[in-house]
Amino acid sequence: MKARKATIHRATRETDITLSLNLDGTGRVAVDTGLPFLDHMLELFAKHGLLDLTIRARGDLAVDYHHTVEDLGLTLGEALDRALGGRAGIVRCGHAYVPMDDALARAVVDLGGRPYLVWEFDTRARKIMAFDLALLREFALALTVKGRLNLHVAQFYGRDPHHAYEAAFKAMGRALAAAARRDPRVKGVPSSKGTL
After folding, report:
1. How far is 149 from 22, CA to CA, in rounded Å?
2. Contact at 8 Å (CB) between 140 and 119?
3. In a 3-state reduction of DSSP, which class is residue 96?
4. Is 111 exposed, middle or buried (0-12, 13-18, 19+ CB in 10 A)?
5. Domains recognised in the chain with CATH numbers
6. CA–CA dist 111, 73 (Å, integer)
7. For the segment 32-67, what is each residue's pLDDT rounded down to a tens digit?
């Protein structure tokens, strides 16, 4: 079977990102974005999705974290789209519920080619240390657009914001792994239209 891998280098005046993704990995992760909380979330996403993920990102963090976070979503989405190729033989949809102590999150993914994001969190926290949690929605939105996927993430409850987002990123990884899984019963693309 053809390897489902992609390496992307994205360089702008604001960021310089090199990212390698293997959809059929074992959860080997090496992430360095300059943003420790984001590194942690991406590590959880890849580890629980059994993705091999390597990221080296440099951005204008002295200006704002926004450029780096959004560009990482764009780069990961592009790598995902390339690694999936024509998307033939995949399950297409997947979901996962993940608890993390007091928090419970659900993620649902459809790799049907239509970008859409629903991002609902119960926690009212705005920051973890210096990291603006609203940026994680920007990351997810960029991921859905470039990755051509439908993503619904909901955190049902949980007081600790770290636990809430940790549960969500673990669920996202697991849901993506379920959706991207190959199924020998699927002939061509999993769509009644015959194309994705």
Report:
1. 17
2. yes
3. strand
4. buried
5. 5-180 (3.30.230.40)
6. 16
7. 999 999 999 999 999 999 999 999 999 999 999 999
